[in-house]
Amino acid sequence: MQRIVPCPKASTPLRPLHDRDASRQLEQRLAATLPPHTLMRRAGLAVARLAMAWQPHAQRIVVLAGGGNNGGDGLVAAARLAQDWPERDVAVWWLGDPERLPDDARWAWQHARAANLTWLQAAPDSPPDLVIDALLGLGLDRPVQGTTLAALRWLQACPAPTLCVDLPSGLDPNTGHWWADTPAQPVAARATLSLLTLKPGLFTGLGRAVAGETIWFDDLGAQADPTTAAAWLVTSAGWPDAAALRADHASHKGSRGDVLVLGGALPAAHAGVGMGGAALLAARAALRAGAGRVYVALVGEANQIPPWDAGQPALMLRSAAAALDSDLPERATVVAGCGGGPGMATLLDTVLARSPRLVLDADALNALAGRTDPDPLAQRRARRWWTVLTPHPLEAARLLRTDTASVQRDRLAAARTLAERWHAVVVLKGSGSVVAAPGLTPRVVASGSGWLATAGSGDTLAGLLGARLSALPWPAPPEDLLAAVADTVALHGTLPEHWPHRWPPTASDLLP
Ligand SMILES: NC(=O)C1=CN([C@@H]2O[C@H](COP(=O)(O)OP(=O)(O)OC[C@H]3O[C@@H](n4cnc5c(N)ncnc54)[C@H](O)[C@@H]3O)[C@@H](O)[C@H]2O)[C@@H](O)CC1
After folding, report:
1. What is 242-498's CATH superfamily?
2. Residue 141 annotated in ligand binding
């Protein structure tokens, strides 16, 4: 059994994420090679052991079990707990119908009936010390209904720590969509033990919010085929390597890569609304991440441009017009959009046509979404130029001409579609950011927290991406570009880990 740590100290390899169909195929293949019920026996044992390791002092344990094989895992765990920890009071609230049980679940039910368990007909009168959630697992693909919904309502509101078997009940394994008409966020501490495979829905959409702080994984002895993975999970960021930068004695500022941040509409340029801070945040992040020279091109008249950034005087400020009148668009990695306002629409053509390394964020994405020509990025693809799009769900919805709910409903599919549609590497931001590139298996980033949901956080990410792209050897295979972008998103997700206070950080607090 392994613990999946979103931000480990040491570098960890990518992990494959398998969806419902791939997990079921693996289960069937493996079950055919083993004596009957072996997998369920292993699953129940793993659940019982983890329950006692996680909540060793729990005396009263309630196992909430559904009528499918997920419930079967719970029944085996209940019997095992009663057998191996006889001093505990183990009760089962089972919602199955003996007439309609799958084979494994029938065996588990008969096995559990022979054990020393209390059988509940309804929710317990008072909260136990521990709940084991085995109501719904891989089989859920439609809205939860009937008595199962009533039980799920109790589960979500129960103040007892809860160990979820395979998946939290109510969560879609493929997408992290929440299938129930009840709040997704549980009130109590949670852990989830994913069985056989790790599922994408645990790490994106509502997965992180519902599954709890700790996700455990037991492969039950299976070797999942990585070529059938729906996505790869990124749990560590190996960049930037400050020690390597320091040790490179022969380097100079020109060899570290240049970044041009284009955005930050000044109040006079944008009907009294100033967004200069967004560009400065992006630029400061790029500098801190190791870019040799960082230029900030603000959208406004030359005489309105502040002479310097007092917080980071190493930044070089100028007007957008002056920057575009130089060779910077060709020479530097361009990060366009951060606070650029509607003025980005007139600047977009220039960077699309001139900048081989380009990150489009915020208002640049809105400008792109507003284009009526069929394929504004076709030329870039033909030249194998790099384009990275960093939409949050609303910007993604504009680019896809749909609504935010549809994007969030299946974030992996939305990111994949965007990547194909725009011939770009796409970072669909949000809980469990998805990084997709045309023709490649997408990556889901495990790091991040609610502290990143603050103004300016996306600008910081855009700046980090600018620095990362400027440091990447050119040309690079598409796989390397995807990996570099995912690595940077993972790094951004780890920034809140270093914040020492109990009040939440601002985006500038989180600058690397
Ligand atoms: N068969 C085996 O040997 C193994 C099974 N495993 C477990 O089996 C699970 C999958 O089992 P199943 O395919 O039976 O699926 P589930 O047990 O997840 O769900 C099926 C049950 O839920 C009910 N249900 C489904 N959708 C519902 C809805 N919207 N509202 C109300 N009730 C609903 C169905 O009527 C059925 O009783 C995995 O998640 C895992 O926990 C794994 O442990 C691996 C081994």
Report:
1. Ribokinase (3.40.1190.20)
2. yes
